[in-house]
Amino acid sequence: MDIAGAAALVTGGASGLGLATVRELHRMGASVAIVDLPSSDGADIAAELGERAVFAPADVTSEDAVSGALDAAQRLGNLRVAVNCAGISTANKTVGKNGAFPLADFTRVVTVNLIGTFNVIRLAAERMSALQPLGEERGVIVNTASVAAFEGQIAGGLLGLEGRHRRHDVVDRARPRGSADQGGDHRARSVQHSPFRHAARGGRRLARSAGPAPFAAR
Ligand SMILES: NC(=O)c1ccc[n+]([C@@H]2O[C@H](COP(=O)([O-])OP(=O)(O)OC[C@H]3O[C@@H](n4cnc5c(N)ncnc54)[C@H](O)[C@@H]3O)[C@@H](O)[C@H]2O)c1
């Protein structure tokens, strides 16, 4: 994917992994829509980056808000890149010193991290499906998981999402609108990304955090 000149949308873009990704994409010449909660520092970051950056406040769990953020991203250019970094975490055990994991907390994490990520994937892929392919693909969607997924934590649901999208290429051989496409593999690609350098393999637990900057550069 040629990033220079493309429009990109980054959720959770006002902090941590998302902010590092915003900075890296902007440095590489993309126009970037920073999607984060209205209470975040997104407006200040967009002002600091200046040209080719906009703050698009949105809760990723809201269909209307994410659609509005995608509109803002598309005003910057053709949306070719969407990166999901918005997320929250809990450190609760299923049963801890204070009793069972509060169901409301579990529900909130699943709603933001899993349903919010899927909400952005589906709406961004829909926009990308209307673009003409650039080389082999119309766009790229990158999702953030965690090594915690391999340890039975909530992020495991995100790996399930990735399995779905890897198999189906998100937009499965969708044709460019209005074209007499000859059946080429014009896809939107979805990539799952853990900020940790190594996945757990063969029972070994490898959990060294790469940190925001290496995450963004990968
Ligand atoms: N930092 C790491 O090493 C690491 C490791 C594994 C997994 N993760 C996961 O990656 C995600 C991002 O991590 P981070 O360290 O950058 O966290 P962070 O807290 O620095 O950034 C998350 C951003 O998401 C935003 N956000 C939260 N809920 C939102 C919502 N509903 N709608 C829109 N934006 C929302 C927050 O305002 C914040 O700006 C988290 O889910 C985290 O659990 C991070």
UniProtKB/TrEMBL annotation:
Give the span(s) annotated as Disordered: 173-218
A GO term, aspect molecular function: oxidoreductase activity
Q: Where are the transmembrane segments?
A: none
Q: Where is the composition biased (Low complexity)?
A: 208-218
Q: Locations of Basic residues compositional bias?
A: 195-207
Q: Which UniProt keywords apply?
A: Oxidoreductase
Report the Pfam families cross-referenced here.
adh_short
Name listed for the protein in its UniProt record: Short chain dehydrogenase
